[in-house]
Amino acid sequence: MQAVVLCEFGPPAALGFVEDWPEPVLGPGQALVDVAYAGITFVETQIRAGRPPNPAMAPALPAVLGNGVGGVVTAVGPDVDEGLVGTRVVAAAGGRGGYAEWCAVPVSGLVAVPETLALDAALALLADGRTALALADAAEPRPGETVLVEAAAGGVGSLLVQLAARAGARVIALAGGQRKLELARELGAYLAVDYLQPDWAATVAEQVGTLDVVYDGVGGGVGREAFELLAADGRYAGFGMASGSFADIPAGHRPDVARVSSGPLPPERSAQLTRRALDLAAEGVLRPVIGQRFRLDQAADAHAAIESRATIGKTLLVVEGEF
Predict the structure, then answer these.
(1) How many CA atoms within 13 Å lie on the side-chain side of 71?
(2) C-beta atoms surrounding 204 within 10 Å
């Protein structure tokens, strides 16, 4: 089968397209998905480069990267209900195997896609949808509050903008560059500010005063500055490190601010949140943003685009079907 294989850690070009990679062999509790789309995450670019956030995430090489896939179940393991065959699903592959024509996934990670929702849209929500909903539940933006969303044009950030606006909050979107700022406004942001500008924090303070909630998807200095803009009794939720590091906020600093977290999601809770995100999208309430698509053999280009900060929303590999 066709697959994208990493034989050594390095730049995007380290991802090689292979026509004859061995097909997955199903074990107990697994299903085989005929992959139509594979998702790419920023973390996967770090793993490919040999700099995973957690050393345990580094695979033994050679390896096929990719966790999230969308497609149709074509076969199941010996102990799995055969009624699943033919079901349109999105699924988490356990961190490996997604950049390929077929992928063996745990049945526990399968989520059926509503009939009225496109498969690519569903995949765009697989990880980002549950993350955004978990963060929204943790920080609970309320009507009239001021909520700042960093990386507001990214996969999770673009959903948080929508969820906070839907909750009745005034959303301040941080993003880099005019294209991303325009998207944030389109999604419901009251104010969109370019955090590549050195005076962005002063602009936010001047325009809206203090903040009630910060969703920190950038980390580093941006995350720290955003934290300092919070009012007493504000809530801070960190969810990413697009800058390369999490915000350096010492323990005990500003005890008047609550640091909230979605925490590790048990499998049942994770599946519940994913189904909720898919249902909201099927109802037209939540809009997943797919900013760019690449063919499977262009995986290296996709990684390069993500690393260059040139992407918006979700980046997908198109494995089969129209590009």
Answers:
(1) 30
(2) 22
Among 8, 57, 37, 54, which residue's Cα sits nearest to residue 124? 37
Which of helix, strand or coil describes residue 317? Answer: strand
What letter represents residue 241's amino acid? Answer: M
Residues 174, 181: Cα–Cα separation, whole Å = 8
Handedness of CA 180, 185, 186, 189 (dihedral sign): positive
Instruction: Enumerate the β-bridge partners of residue 314.
Output: 290
Burial of 119 (0-12, 13-18, 19+ CB in 10 A): middle
Rounded CA-CA distance 284/291 in Å is: 18
The token pair at 70 is: 């969308």
Q: Which residue has the tokens 């920190």?
A: 216
pTM, entire model:
0.93
DSSP SS3 for 253: coil
CB-CB contact of 162 with 187 (8 Å): yes
For residue 141, the one-letter residue type is P
Q: What span, in angstroms and rounded, lies between the C-alpha atoms of 191 and 179?
A: 14
- pLDDT values of the chain reduced to their tens digit, one per residue, 323 residues: 999 999 999 999 999 999 999 999 999 999 999 999 999 998 999 999 999 988 999 999 999 999 999 999 999 999 999 999 999 999 999 889 999 999 999 999 899 999 999 999 999 999 999 999 999 999 999 999 999 999 999 999 999 999 999 999 999 999 999 999 999 999 999 999 999 999 999 999 999 999 999 999 998 999 999 999 999 999 999 998 787 788 999 989 999 999 999 888 888 899 999 999 999 999 999 999 999 999 999 999 999 999 998 899 999 999 986 55
